[in-house]
Design goal:
Length: 498
């Protein structure tokens, strides 16, 4: 939930629609701040302390086009009504209120303007535009155009016409938001340019439009402007890209309205060629990485089948078992690579991995004399590749041990607990750790057996991977009561996730 929504829900009784309107404003008000060369603060009325009218600052935006007035963050601060008389008047008079004289209380001369925020015929908040007038230069045409447009947006804000209804502008990734500094063109209601900023000229030149855009109709210099002109005519903001000869330019048309009629348009123009090229390169890279995982998986599967073939040929039982175990270990690594080849991020859904390991082990190894119920409980969630691979191996080893050692037919009494053994993997995911329990209700570890004292490979692999690869802890938990009246075995693994 956004900070704005939090503040509004705790301190005001604005309804959902009004809150959404203010959220939309906060998504779009960088433009207003930049065009105004001003800091923006958003205020709502509160009582603080109880019964005493005050204003709570619920939003702050600094301009890219000018020095900020406020070094400090004011969101969440409460201002006594007397200190914010312009805001109070904007609420009471429901119109834009301008300061006659600059305010010197912050040490620099600040000119303030309070703009009411209209929504469905009501004033739900007030935005102040505060600019440091000591920095003011003699205004150029660019600055005059900015200020004129900012004034129009402010009036639209009071009328409830700005921000535009949510959903009007297609969602674009944050890296693609347009800023007025990228380049602007101000057009009249018919689409003739009134002012073209130098950056906008450069962008159109790169598109191959060499003629001067000043005073021209949009269709004379923009090769694909129909959508933009439609948006202007219909008072709907439009965002669209145009590509010519490898150059990509993003344009955003913001219709400027007065009493519901389009009086002009602000076209923000941003060349995004490099950004698009970069994105394309990333996509290619991503596909390459997945392809490599796919090949690694195939190679591992080939290795596993070679070993499997060999296992069939050797006579020595011990050697045959050792080979089959290697097949199983390699297969569980292959499984993780297979998952990685399917995901675009280098993360895997480990719950899927776990259930596939279970299926793989269940297939070949269940001892028909003692039925075993294999299950996964809890959820591991997404894990980065470097955690998923060792974890898959550890889980495989521990499950394999339960299947292999926990239920020797000669020691399991089939008349107790339905004669069914239970093997479970339990995941417990916290924000910064993952706890994994592998439990069975079998015969328990042999007397004197501990994870520090093993000559065999399985527990050694599990322990080494847990401690050195994953930086986690690995231990045996005390046996609990079991349905088969056997002590059972539980291994606990705690993996830190950064
Ligand atoms: N869940 C279990 N229930 C009962 N005994 C177990 C269990 N897990 C391990 N053990 C005992 O601990 C010993 C060591 O296990 P470990 O996995 O290291 O070796 P292994 O399974 O015998 O051989 P490997 O895994 O190398 O094929 C096993 O031989 C077995 O006696
Ligand atoms: Mg083992």
């Amino acid at each position: 939930m956004s900070q704005l929504r939090d503040l509004l829900e705790v301190h005001t009784d604005l309804d959902d629609g009004a809150v959404a309107h203010l959220e939309a404003l906060l998504r779009d008000w960088q433009i207003l701040s930049d065009l105004s060369f001003a800091d923006l603060l958003l205020f709502v009325p509160v009582e603080w302390p109880q019964g005493v009218p005050a204003f709570l600052c619920v939003g702050q935006m600094r301009p890219y086009t000018a020095a900020t007035v406020y070094q400090e963050d004011l969101v969440g601060e409460v201002f006594p009504r007397a200190n914010r008389s312009l805001v109070a008047r904007a609420f009471a008079e429901e119109r834009v209120i301008r300061d006659a004289d600059p305010d010197w209380s912050t040490g620099v001369p600040v000119r303030e303007e309070a703009v009411p925020v209209g929504y469905r015929g009501q004033i739900i908040a007030v935005v102040t535009r505060e600019s440091n007038v000591s920095m003011a230069r003699s205004p150029s045409q660019l600055e005059l155009t900015y200020l004129q447009t900012a004034g129009e947006l402010a009036v639209m804000l009071a009328d409830g016409a700005f921000p535009f209804e949510a959903g009007d502008v297609a969602e674009t990734p944050p890296s693609l938001t347009t800023r007025v500094g990228d380049g602007i063109i101000r057009v009249d209601a018919k689409g003739f340019s009134i002012y073209v900023s130098p950056n906008a000229i450069s962008s159109y030149r790169r598109l191959g439009r060499l003629q001067d855009a000043n005073g021209q109709h949009l269709s004379d210099f923009d090769p694909d402007c129909e959508g933009l002109l439609d948006g202007l005519a219909e008072a709907e903001p439009v965002e669209a890209e145009v590509e010519r000869d490898g150059t990509v330019v993003l344009r955003r048309m913001i219709p400027l309205l007065r009493d519901g009629t389009v009086v002009a348009g602000l076209l923000i123009v941003r060349e995004v060629t490099d950004l698009r090229r970069h994105e394309r390169a990333l996509r290619v890279k991503d596909a390459t990485i997945r392809e490599i995982h796919h090949r690694v998986k195939n190679n591992l599967q080939t290795v596993a089948s070679l070993l499997r073939l060999q296992a069939r040929r050797v006579r020595n039982e011990e050697a045959r078992l050792a080979l089959s175990e290697s097949v199983r270990r390699i297969s569980s690594i292959a499984l993780v690579h297979e998952m990685l080849s399917e995901e675009s991020q280098q993360r895997v859904d480990f719950d899927k991995v776990a259930s596939r390991i279970l299926a793989m082990l269940g297939d070949g190894l269940l001892n028909p004399e003692v039925p075993i119920d294999l299950a996964v409980r809890g959820a591991a969630g997404d894990l980065p590749a470097e955690v998923a691979t060792p974890l898959a191996l550890i889980v495989t080893e521990l499950l394999q041990n339960s299947l292999e050692h926990a239920f020797p037919p000669d020691r399991v009494r089939l008349d107790v607990g339905n004669g069914t053994g239970h093997v479970q993997v339990r995941f417990d995911r916290a924000p910064s750790t993952l706890r994994v329990l592998v439990t069975d209700d079998g015969v328990g570890l042999p007397e004197g057996q501990s994870i520090d004292l093993v000559a065999n490979l399985g527990l050694q692999i599990a322990r080494t991977l847990a401690e050195s690869e994953l930086g986690g802890t690995f231990c045996i938990l005390r046996p609990g009561a079991s349905a088969l009246a056997l002590p059972g075995t539980t291994f606990e693994l705690v993996v830190p996730l950064s």
